[in-house]
């Protein structure tokens, strides 16, 4: 746990064990202010980006795209608290005053402990949480379609199912903000598409803020309310995606928006 903003928790006070707060979780806002990141390298000081500012609305789905090396992981790691910025700051805002904001993380590879079952992999992040119960873990597993796999080991699951456990683990701490780092890039396209559809269903159901990183423009348009384009050391474009959901990637409107995004992306990147 790398950031003060993060805390593990199970059901909200007053909830019974059927504790998934459907659509009523307080989602968090993210405010990125004047962020600069430099690294010392053998060739000298390298600036990845400088003076980057943006705001993410509570409950929105925002995706950061950029070419390899543009600084997506660096940005995500600063937002998650894993890396310190050289200058600037990241602020989180809960909906209720005085509330601390919780971040959940979904990584490119789900990072499951192989000697633990699925449920035990979820229990692991709740070690200090007195409210945690196995029933809560099972409810979250049901939500992502893992009802038949509670007690299986990661080696007994497909890549897509393992990533579902990763998503369950992140959701199980009831975060206001879900940070997702290219979570579907290691999966075959059919599985990735299934998981994208489920992610949108869960996002609509639970009302989390999602900050998603990908290099895949089609995926970004399919999922997001907004796409931030990172390149040349700055956010050079901020594109709203106004397509209705569920989005059909083969529809004429989708392809039109996709072409516009590609044109805008290639304007700089
Ligand atoms: N710890 C580090 N020390 C020195 N340079 C670094 C470090 N981490 C990242 N960089 C440099 O910062 C730049 C941005 O890297 P970053 O990994 O954030 O890009 P990215 O957009 O996530 O790339 P990819 O899509 O390939 O994962 C790169 O030039 C990289 O070499």
Tell me about this structure:
A 6-stranded mixed β-sheet has the order 5-6-7-3-8-9, with helices on both faces. By secondary structure, it is of the alpha/beta class. The two termini are 33 Å apart. Helix 3 crosses helix 4. The longest helix is centred in the last third of the chain and has 18 residues. Strand 8 and strand 9 form a beta hairpin. It is globular. Adenosine-5'-triphosphate binds next to strand 1, strand 2 and helix 1. One of its GO terms (cellular component) is plasma membrane.
Main sheet summary: 6 strands, mixed
N/C terminus separation: 33 Å
| Parts with pLDDT < 50 across at least 5 consecutive residues | 1-18
Structural class designation: alpha/beta
Bound molecules: adenosine-5'-triphosphate
- What's the total helix number? 7
The percent of residues in helical segments reads 25-40%
SSE ordering:
EEEHEEHHHEHEHEEH
Shape: globular
What percent of residues are in strands?
A: 15-25%
What is the fold's blueprint, element by element?
Blueprint: E1 29-41, E2 44-56, E3 61-66, H1 72-80, E4 87-93, E5 103-106, H2 118-123, H3 134-143, H4 159-171, E6 177-181, H5 189-206, E7 209-214, H6 217-223, E8 226-231, E9 234-240, H7 252-266
Parallel strand pairs: 3-7, 3-8, 5-6, 6-7
Antiparallel strand pairs: 1-2, 1-4, 8-9
The structure holds adenosine-5'-triphosphate.
Adenosine-5'-triphosphate binds at residues 39, 41, 46, 48, 66, 68-74, 215.
């Amino acid at each position: 746990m790398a950031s003060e903003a993060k805390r593990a928790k199970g059901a909200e006070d007053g909830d019974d064990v059927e504790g998934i707060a459907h659509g009523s979780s307080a989602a968090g806002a993210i405010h990125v202010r004047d962020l600069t990141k430099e690294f010392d390298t053998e060739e000298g000081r390298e600036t990845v980006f400088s003076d980057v500012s943006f705001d993410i609305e509570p409950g929105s789905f925002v995706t950061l795209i950029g070419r390899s090396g543009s600084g997506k992981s660096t940005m995500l790691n600063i937002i998650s608290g894993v890396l310190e910025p050289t200058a600037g700051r990241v602020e989180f805002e809960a909906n209720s005053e005085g509330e601390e904001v919780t971040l959940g993380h979904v990584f490119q590879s789900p990072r499951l402990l192989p000697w633990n079952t699925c449920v035990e992999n979820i229990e692991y992040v709740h070690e200090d949480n007195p409210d945690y119960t196995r029933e809560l873990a099972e409810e979250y597993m049901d939500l992502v379609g893992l009802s038949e796999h509670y007690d299986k080991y990661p080696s007994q699951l497909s890549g897509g199912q393992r990533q579902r456990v990763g998503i369950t683990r992140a959701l199980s701490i009831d975060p206001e903000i879900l940070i997702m780092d290219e979570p579907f890039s290691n999966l075959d396209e059919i599985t990735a598409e299934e998981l994208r559809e489920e992610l949108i269903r869960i996002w609509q159901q639970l009302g989390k803020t999602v900050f998603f990183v990908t290099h895949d423009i089609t995926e970004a348009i399919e999922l997001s309310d907004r796409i931030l384009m990172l390149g040349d050391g700055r956010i050079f474009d901020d594109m709203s995606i106004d397509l209705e959901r569920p989005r059909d990637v083969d529809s004429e409107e989708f392809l039109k928006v996709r072409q516009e995004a590609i044109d805008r992306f290639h304007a700089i990147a």
